Amino acid sequence: MPRPVKCRRICCMPVADCFAPVPSGNSPDDPEKAVFITVEEFEAIRQIDYLGLNQEDCATRMCVARTTLQRIYSEARMKLARALVEGIPLKIKGGNFQLCESEGNICSCGKCHK
User: Fold this and answer.
1) pLDDT in tens, 26-45
2) Concatenated DSSP letters for 54-93?
3) Which has the closest alpha carbon to 8: 63, 77, 70, 49?
């Protein structure tokens, strides 16, 4: 029996939950085709690529092991690359997460859900 998945801690929900390319003559055959990333995959990209944190600090903030964070981050980057290269919409939804309440000194981003 597999181990139960722990909730990943995120600081805030994404401002937008869908990104779509502006057609430039070549639009995808199936407009309903989209890439889906989870909220915790978005959070990993936000913290590592946008905020510039290293994987160890990001894993601590999200309350997961570094190896788990590395897997989440790798999957998110592959999905993001696919959406950019193929010119298809990217949608953010779902996942197994809880909003950070800024308890203790784990997160000091100042944007935590209160």
Assistant:
1) 555 555 689 999 999 999 99
2) -HHHHHHHHTS-HHHHHHHHHHHHHHHHHHHHHT--EEE-
3) 63
Angle at 3 between CA 91 and CA 82, to 5 degrees: 25
pLDDT at 41: 96
pLDDT > 70? residue 25: no
Residues forming beta bridges with residue 91, ordered by sequence position: 18, 36
**Residues whose CB falls within 8 Å of the CB of residue 103, separated by 6 or more in sequence, listed in order:** none
The answer as to whether 15 is a domain residue is no
Residue 61 sits in which domain range? 1-7+33-101
Residue 14: inside a domain: no
- Kindly state whether residue 110 falls inside one of the protein's structural domains: no
Question: In sequence order, what are the beta bridge partners of 8?
Answer: 97
